[in-house]
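step=predict obj=Mitofusin n=774
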Amino acid sequence: MNSNHSEQQLQQRVYADRCRRLQAHLVDTKALLRELGDYSRTKWPVHYPLGRGGRAGDTGAAGLRRSSSMVMGGSAGSAGGEHPAPMRRAMTLEDAQGGRDADDADEAEDSAGLRVLRLDVRLAYHGDADVVGSLEESSIARLFDERLAQSAAHIDKLLARVGDRSSKILVTGDLNAGKSTLVNALLRQDILPSDQQPCTMLFCEVVDASLNAGAEDIHGVPSIAAYSRADPRTFERVARSDLEDVVAENGAGFQQLKIYTRSRGHGTLLHNGSVDVALIDSPGLNRDSLKTTQLFARQEEIDVVVFVVNAENHFTLSGQDFLASAGNEKARIFIVVNRFDAIRRRDRCERMILDQIRDLSPLTYAERDDLVHFVSAHEQLAAASEPFARMERSLRAFALEQRFKSKLAPAQRYAMNVLGDVQYVAAESVAAATRRIQQINAQLRESLPRYETLLVERAAASRTAEAVLDDGCLEVRRHTAAHLANATLHLQDVADKVPYAGLLALWAYAERVLLAMVRHLEHEVAECDRFACFAIQQARTELSALDVRRRGIEGAPSPHDASEELLPPSLSPDMSVELPPVGTVSNALDSAQLELSDFVDLDLTRSWGALTSLTASASLALLASKSVAAHALALLRLSSAMGTHTARRVMVASAVLIGAGSVLYVVSDMDATVRRNLSARLSLMLDDEGFAARHAERLATEASRAVRPFVWHLQHSFQRMVEAEELRRADHLRRRHAAQDSQVYFDELRIKAHDLANAVRAVGAADSTDAARL
Ligand SMILES: Nc1nc2c(ncn2[C@@H]2O[C@H](COP(=O)(O)OP(=O)(O)OP(=O)(O)O)[C@@H](O)[C@H]2O)c(=O)[nH]1
């Protein structure tokens, strides 16, 4: 007895230690899922293996088939025992048939598809993997993120369950199988009503009165979720005398009865000294669908299912259904075949029922000596029987000593599954990141020559364009300067072509000469403008050719591309060049007026002045004239040789002759004088005002103004191409950096998940190890 007690204590400590370790690992697993979700959401979307669906060990189509069938058959939360689902059941049966425990099953499933974090993409799935694969990566990442959150929430539930020190035993089975009688027998008291007709209408949870401060009491609970023993508003007290009616009628519509009772006798299941046990009697199956649904809904908080079979009926259809679905959650079911006292051919009955169990719950069948019992609860109430005592011991062992299997294993299995999935998606994400890095490297390598060519082309085109502009402007400047300088120099040629109509029309003649020269200069300026237009046109054509060449460079935006800057109409090379009006060709010409000096030479002017001032003395006038000074001197010398009187007469005659000749000469040469003087004067004026240089400057500036936008456009377009390429390269580099980060992150995550999975697995290690550690 003592050794039994100390062994039980040791097992309790082992169990407590396992609970603690598993709780810590569950917390770590949850943190890992959160971290993965955060990373996937904010940094790099996790790579969900849609294309193949299988684990790393799977190959091609087989992996896809397996994954697809899982996707089609199971719901998102079905794996890992979260909710019952066909796929999960299939796996459980498979595990059981192989006689393996949960850990072995996990090992065997390492090559299967995702188990817990599988996405339900049925809406998008039409039997074609490509359709699934075409789902946007971000949508998948979002779905996956939701799946991670669901999984974390489920871990919270598991944590609560593992941390719950109580053990809940649900007693269920067909109508009238003797469930209530069995619970009474286990409690050693006739507390629950039993009847030949179906009488249990609601769940009756029987717990030790120590959980109600030692007071025996019955609470009718309208809402299980809201129930609190300490809050009278959440329940209705039921008198013991009314219990039978309430259980049979449930007129108040309670969801549950909570029955606090003091144990009668020693060593009852409820009062075992270590764990709080709750025995839950339930309405018989197939009473109505609502009750059945409630039953299923409650499975998650149930640690042990005791299924009561009426030995006279064997398994009914609803019993079979229940067992099949309960097997999803509880791999092993504790089966009590009751009313065995009423059976005549017991061995045959036993064989037939065991055969049914083998098909319905292979794991239970495998441990049938401990899990399947043929008893008579009715007889037990009257007097203790050995089969019942054996059943009770087994149940206690199952509920208390093997709590790991009933309570911790599902949590452990879930954690193993989810960590396996994390390793899988992490490995897939590492592979995807590696592929992405290689892809980006290839893109960078591939685009480098294009980028370098672009830089060279840009520099060359810019140089050429500047040269075209400079050369064009220089040519315009040079041509204009030379052309107008020449025109200025040869103004007299223009004047010479103006017909002379005689002395009487001399003034009008001079006016026409002046006008002709002005018109000529205007014409020459216009000529220079035309040349400038031609030079501009030529430069534009050359620049347009450079732009055409630019568009031909690989990677240049197409003309329809939004990023390609359209050539404004003003920059069309086909547009005729128009320079702004010249305005004033020359200020000097505009203000030019005929002057007296235009009609006479400067030298004659002086003679003419002398002649008019000295009317009495032609010789003096002649003497005063510089041009005839030499003649005057000669005459003086001659006069000294001749007599004074003779000389004076000769001199006067000479003076008259010279004066008359001079006047004649001046008059007859007046048109030439006008042409000469006028052209010379204009030429001088034009030189003074920098006529040629000013127009050369004007036209060079106009040419620059007309051509420069083409150069800018070309340079700007090149710059945009270079910038676009640089942006592409920078983007590649940024994405490569992110991929490298994620490669490292997911690899570390994989290792972390692997280590954690090993630690979770170690929680299920042999008891001897635990015992040695403790
Ligand atoms: N012969 C025999 N009769 C039993 C045994 N156990 C229960 N009964 C009888 O079977 C009838 C039904 O028993 P209950 O305990 O009410 O059965 P139940 O499964 O709780 O019934 P519901 O909750 O109404 O579905 C009662 O008349 C019991 O006396 C048994 O071991 N042998």
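step=describe
Confidence is low (pLDDT under 50) at residues 52-112, 123-127, 129-133, 609-628.
step=end
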